[in-house]
Write a structure and sequence with these properties.
The protein is an alpha+beta fold. Helix content is 35%, strand content 24%. It contains 9 helices and 13 strands. An 8-stranded mixed β-sheet has the order 5-4-3-7-6-2-12-13. Strands 1-11-10-9-8 form a 5-stranded antiparallel β-sheet. The longest helix has 23 residues. Bound molecules: aspartic acid.
Length: 324
Amino acid sequence: MFRNIIAVIVLISIVLACNNTVKEDKSIPEYVLVIHGGAGTILKENMSAEKEKLYIKKLQEALQTGDAILKDGGTSLDAITATIMVMENSPLFNAGKGAVFTEEGIVEMDASIMDGNTSSAGAVAGVHNIKNPILAARAVMENTSHVLLTGDGADDFANSQGLEIVDSSYFFTDSRWKSYQNAKNKKHGTVGAVALDKHGNLAAGTSTGGMTFKMKGRVGDSPIIGAGTYADNNTCAVSATGHGEYFIRNVVAYDIGALMKYKKITLKEAVNYVILDKLKKIGGDGGIIAVDSQGNYAMTFNTAGMYRGVVNSDGVMDIKIYND
Ligand code: ASP
């Protein structure tokens, strides 16, 4: 059975290598930061040159923000938090400022964070007024004995922590309102970051507005530890984006680490199997970013495109959008 899995992995790696940037070599960089800004039907022919520039600039700013922290010896947790905030503060991505609307025309945002060193984790789901949900997730992790707070309770908690609370009008953007009005136009655009720091610690975080026109109360994979986010210093850190219900049912982020741990396979093998074979076969659109404890990383998706980028201590800085 395991041989069959490996054979499938090898075959898929060859066929779909273009959807898949994987670094795998022996040298261990001091630090690595990988980000995504959502996966989906992102086609060059539908993108204006101007818009493309905006995305690249913002992804670059996000990478540079985390890079500066990691270069200074800062923690992977601080790097991914600051990096995700840059994307949450931009209307370009479906998180924070650019969050999509539910069928009732309001925002219900989800976010989570996990520390690969201690296995501690925090998450919020269905929050309405927190400017940076990733900060609320981190506060749940650091200042409560719980992992996941939802709705009003999470909003109240963020307020009590002194986090910035904004009026719902802050989240209004023309483009999200248009996709809300055109309910069929389901947008992906979740943001996420994973990092390995100079201390050898991994961390992962994800933040989203969820799926456009989702039911009131619907929670996706992004705030579910093990589905949309997972980090373990012994294996890897993963942040996912895509059709959340599939990612929850397949416990995608945890599955990748578990395959590495129990089957003793590499990050590349685990990611290829889960994203390009298992999920693809059942119609689970989306992708992941991941980094392992050796600094190997993956940006892998089974959709037309995924906003993504990587920076590391060896001077690598790579940003991509389409299937190339
Ligand atoms: N995974 C997110 C959700 O299902 C959406 C996305 O990544 O675009 O809520």
